[in-house]
Amino acid sequence: MSIIWRLARHLLVLAGLVPASFAAAPIELPPAVLGALERAQVPAANSAIVVVPLDAGPLQLSRNENVPMNPASTMKLLTTYAALQTLGPDYRWRTQILASRRPIAGRIDGDLIVRGSGDPSLVIERWWLLLQRLRALGVRDIQGDLVLDRSAYAQAQLMGPTLDGNDLRPYNVPPDALLINFKTLSLEFVPDPAGPVAHIIATPQLEGVHIPAQVPLTDGPCADWKDQLRADFSRPHSPRFDGSFARACGIKTWHVSLLSPNEYVLATFRSLWKAAGGTLRGGVREAVVGPNAVALIEHESAPLSEVIRDINKNSNNVMARQLFLTLGTALQPQDAPAPGDAGTIEAPQAATSQAEPQPADTVRSIRVMRSWLDQQGLRMPELVLQNGSGLSRQERISAASLAQLLVHAWGSSQMPNFVASLPLAGVDGTMKKRPAASGAAYVKTGYLSDVRALAGYVFSASGHRYVVVALINDAHAPAAQAAHDELLDWIWREG
After folding, report:
1. What is the mean pLDDT of the chain?
2. Is 341 within the bounds of a domain?
3. What CA–CA distance (Å, rounded) separates 407 from 9?
4. How many domains is the chain partitioned into structurally?
5. Residue 225 — very low, low, confident or very high, per pLDDT cuts 50/70/90?
């Protein structure tokens, strides 16, 4: 019996989910799954699959279960479950607004300061509400600068190369202790039903960024509509579209990240503050809040139980990375990083007093994660962590380790919150358009150019429940998604 079966049986027995006598041998891959892998030209060695029953279900399956593989976004399962267990489902981030001088008659003769704590969910609606509350306090005129305190994160977390070199893609936005709306501008192209143009609706409004009001419509097919627009983003404050938009495309939205972090916060602040009747005389700069700053108002984030739904259902990378960093700041690490991590993270900083909170960094978060895994008895010797989101070429985990994590989660008090955060096949999130095991599979997906991954739970038609993990690392991985769909259908139908 392989290690995954011994571990799964042990965890299930401890959780009281199966009798101690339960043990079944792995079975072969179903022909439909094998056929889909063969058609995609994925060699057997490049695919790993584990199916584990959570009760007395008849199916068990393992293939290359102990091989370390790139899990893409299924790595978010480890980050979100560890956060639920350690931080608790009601954990919240706080964003504070302070002033260098006490407001007098609605006027601040100094700076307005915004201090972030790494809230992953400070979207534009919540940023607007925070500024509305500030305005309701009577603050109107700010004579100084907008000062941003990002000291909750180490400076190294705010920079570095992206996975694919495309800084415009929102999934490449780096972590930011004061992340507003994922630093993203959404451009919606809406064809005019009675005219020859498509209107462009920009959300949010960014002060100082001038977006064309419209582009010409054409009657051709909707092929690669982004290429047809011939966008020019070389001047971020005045992007251009030199092409056209096909009427057949209907309404489309293009999400881009154009501005630097400071520029984005300033542009959204100026727009929202001006609309609220306020004024800002100065510009924007970064600084650490001084001891004499006057606290004005505070925003509390949504609870962690809600935040992880956005992370897992929508596979939000920057939110996952911020949650991973939070693990290292909210908890005390116990163990040093494993030797295998030396090439993927910066060197640890010297230890400091617990009374002096240190800026978040991945080194501390990796230590905390490894310590937590040891405390839970979850052995993952092959695990390589970089940022906890799966948006990485370096992160590694085996199908067996992901399966034991899912078995452990099923038996924990956090199971309802964890399972509810996963995309439901055929219903929502990244599984919305995949009908396999529709309405019966709660599974996290993962995609990179040469990775296809899937991990979660399947409720079979007979009433049995299963853990499923399926990983593909191969140049032909994009063509092999059908194999994972066949696997889900097989578990639902035969389980």
Report:
1. 89
2. no
3. 10
4. 3
5. very high
